[in-house]
Design a protein that fits this description.
- Belongs to the 3-hydroxyacyl-CoA dehydrogenase family.
- This protein has helices at 11-22, 34-54, 59-67, 75-79, 93-106, 122-126, 160-172, 188-204, 210-221, 227-234, 236-250, 259-266; strands at 3-7, 26-30, 69-72, 84-87, 112-115, 135-140, 149-154, 176-181.
- It has 282 residues and is of the alpha/beta class.
- It has an eight-stranded mixed β-sheet with strand order 3-2-1-4-5-6-7-8, sandwiched between helices.
- Helix 8 crosses helix 10 (227-234) and helix 8 (188-204) crosses helix 11 (236-250).
- The N and C termini lie far apart (42 Å).
- The mean pLDDT is 97.
- Bound molecules: acetoacetyl-coenzyme A.
- Acetoacetyl-coenzyme A binds next to helix 2, helix 8 and helix 10.
Amino acid sequence: MKNIAVIGSGTMGNGIAHTFAQHGYTVTLIDIAEEALKKAINTIDKNLTRQVEKGTITEAIKKQTLENIATSSDLKSGVSNVDLVVEAATENIDLKLKIFQDLDAATLPDTILATNTSSISITEIASVTKRADKVIGMHFMNPVPVMKLVEVIRGYNTSNEVTSTIMELSRSLEKIPVEVNDYPGFIANRILMPMINEAIYSLYEGVAGVEEIDSVMKLGMAHPMGPLQLADFIGLDVCLSILNVLHDGFGNPKYAPCPLLVNMVQAGHKGIKSGNGFYAYT
Ligand code: CAA
């Protein structure tokens, strides 16, 4: 494993590209929008500068990391010669299925196709390719350069060999991989999202205010962020879409998204990215 392509240059995509490049991999960061690619490189530069200022990396590593990243707005040529693709496009099933069909046609037969999806079925994504044994979930956490976990999700047909390659690769990024099977929400979001939803229900039912709910979980459970602040950080639209996947996938009313969350997303209050959520951001 040496050459990696990352599809999508948003928050997760640029963090994944940053992490691979910092650990010596050659990365092609691919996005249809040139503007988004420029923004992603600026973000990576800023985050590397922060690491240099904190003394966790040297200026030379920062320079090498940036040199290890090329950008491309053409998916076909960007993935034609890579060992691994990590897809981190928008969380939309139709889009992901289309991307995986294209990747199957444009990559070498042995290329492993990974997705950073937070809740879409790996088995369903794999089903549109002719290499279901080489399709796997590689779910990084935000902020990617900081968080230690990679949730490695085996689709129904993912091979043992591909799973061990991705576990080993994750360790080479100084991450700790955890292997899980492909069921709705996997483990991370199956447990995280009901907690966030319950925090939103507590607010909706008037049990306590935003800051009070977050303080209880930060001070009482040593969470670095309270659940409402974390929901804003993840994106309220993303939280809603994951809850819908859990609700549809298990058919259990305990996963039904709180009406307040539905209303906020419909009103355009999506958390940090829209400037307003449970908190206001300027
Ligand atoms: N790139 C590189 N370094 C970064 C960074 C980035 N994007 N963001 C923060 N950092 C570094 C800082 O430089 C700092 O480094 P040192 O420890 O070496 O000093 C460290 O991270 C802590 O940052 P700050 O001091 O600025 O801020 P903080 O102490 O408040 O921590 C946080 C910020 C790491 C985000 C912390 O609040 C946290 O852990 N929050 C919870 C994050 C979380 O739960 N993420 C998972 C979300 S769920 C998900 O991603 C998956 C999904 O499917 C929804």
